[in-house]
Amino acid sequence: xxxxxxxxxxxxxxxxxxxxxMVVVLTACGTAAFQHEESRLTFRMVRDTPGWYTGMPDxxxxxxxxxxxxxxVEHIHAWWWPAAGGRADAPAILYLHGARWxxxxxxxxxxxxxxxxxSVLAIDYRGFGKSDGDTPTEKTVYEDAxxxxxxxxxxxxxxxxxxxxxxxxxxxxxxxxxxxxxxxxGAAAEAPAAAGLIIESSFTTLxxxxxxxxxxxxxxxxxxxxxxxxxSKMAKVKLPVLVVHGAADRFVPARFSEALxxxxxxxxxLLLIDGATHNNSMRTGALQYRHALAExxxxxxxxxxxxxQ
Length: 309
Known about the structure:
Elements: H1 4-9, H2 11-28, H3 32-43, E1 61-69, E2 72-81, E3 92-96, H4 107-115, E4 119-123, H5 138-155, E5 162-167, H6 169-180, E6 196-200, H7 206-213, H8 230-234, E7 241-246, H9 254-263, E8 268-273, H10 281-284, H11 286-297
Parallel strand pairs: 3-4, 3-5, 5-6, 6-7, 7-8
Antiparallel strand pairs: 1-2, 2-4
């Protein structure tokens, strides 16, 4: 049997030995405190208002939605911004943001969606912004999305005019919601149906994302209690899916969105925006976005290309 001295003299085996020690130590510490720290590092909530926030646009309605939490009731903070002109037949979209910034840090993307013709419902998960709660978990953000979706479905009763949008970590929340609205056997879903799913700057699983930021050989999957496994859920989504990614995204590789696109089961379109990074695909590729919305969902008229695009 190899001795420890032998293992430590071999660089590759030494790395494996260190990784195994890490697994043993961290697993032994797999308590609620460890899970809380995992959630904190995953969501990285910042309740402060970012410097680029210039105030609430006219027409945005703020309100709170109740969410059952055990025997208690907590609330998530929401914005509702009706489409320009207050059109009742406008498509409505649920905006699910990613990690770190709350709604005040997301306004520029919410504005873009409204410019595309949507009425927008945007929420802060519990633990973000003005919402109740401390640190979110995978379970609680999924619950929050379902509560928001039921509100949106009541506001826009036509299922052919309801859409789901998720950015970055919010894409995993959006995919989970979309999968829950789909049934593999074709039966009617228990929750109200949607007309389409839009995900931007997405990743396949939290484990894949962690490995892309550290070392592929680290056994991070053994440590993570939160999975955010969009890869397995995407195959269950029976809605039309628009997958968008900035080709110059240096934080989340575009190959993750390409992998999700490949396993999507329904009508689908992949949109890679040249020059766009993690946060600005909607703005950099506004014209391409509009064409994709028209082509896949039949929303609006694709505008004529201009010299500035």
